[in-house]
Predict the structure of Lipoprotein.
Amino acid sequence: MYKIAVVAILGLLLTACEKMQGLTQAEQVERTIRQEVRRDLHGLNALTDTADATPYDGFAWRRGEQVQIRQRQGQDLVLLEQAKAPQIIATAVAQRIPSFSLVRYQQGWLVVFDTYVSPLCQVVYAYAYRGQLADTPLCTKDVFAEQANGRCQSPITDEWQVFKEWFFASSLLEEGNPACVQSATRFSESNG
């Protein structure tokens, strides 16, 4: 009787373990962005307010290094060799932000977080965005599955969004990656 009970319990545990799945990379990245924005909302607001008061369109900085300042010229963000923005570093230091990468986008600011490759062979750039993104759909698995390239958002607060932009990874397709070959076929069939 004891052996039967042990086998039954082990069977239930194995079934339960199979149903428990860890977070996907996309879910982990999104959770990290949400946690970081909520954890340091005041600091990120101060940093983006300071950036907004400058004429520049991009900043990248890591404690102990020179700040990189960029200006939009057409579609490109050009690195400015002689530009100075001591106020942005002072704000980062005052807010205990050890590094950041900000890019002006539409009417707000992107805070760069992570890049990953989706199971559909898309290179996904994941950001926190301060502002409102009109005409940008909510992120769902269907949005990724329907479009080889695209953008989506998910609200964090009234002012902050998780913003994702993705592009089909053509280089992986050229290397013969099976997931990319399968996705390329599906995307071409759905676009007809």
The helical segments are 2-19, 25-39, 41-52, 86-94, 141-146, 170-174, 178-190. The chain has seven helices and eight strands. The radius of gyration is 22 Å.
